Predict the structure.
Amino acid sequence: MANVITYGTFDLFHIGHLRLLQRAKALGGENGTLTVVVSSDRFNWVEKHKKCAIPDLQRAEIVGALKCVDKVLFENSWEQKRQDVIDNKIDIFVMGEDWKGKFDFLKDLCEVVYLPRTPDISSTELKEQLQG
Ligand code: CTP
């Protein structure tokens, strides 16, 4: 049993998001928990210069309704990760492999795992496709 945490925007929730969250939950094993930290609209705009189609409260509600998700928090800064790991007694920190190596500084606190992405889908691509 392990407590797992992962971070993301989860805008225009799609199959790549679902598979990532299911695999993250499975890493925790029997009775493991999955905490998902959803990037706030403000964090996305100020730090990533990205505008979301779906407001953060709704993105968090969608993620929180999934069977594989036990707890939802908001991401408001790059610096909160160490405290989140400590506060939530996290054993495994999971990100998609687009972030490979970026969070290795947490390895003194927990295991850090990068999972392969589902090919050919992303929120950005969906937005571009809709724009024609
Ligand atoms: N993810 C994935 N497979 C995809 C898309 C996303 O495994 N095809 C994972 C990411 O690696 C991340 C999590 O889902 O760990 C949340 O990703 P997020 O950045 O919200 O989704 P993207 O669709 O990649 O969004 P964007 O295009 O805005 O970067």
Remarks:
- The chain has a mean pLDDT of 97.
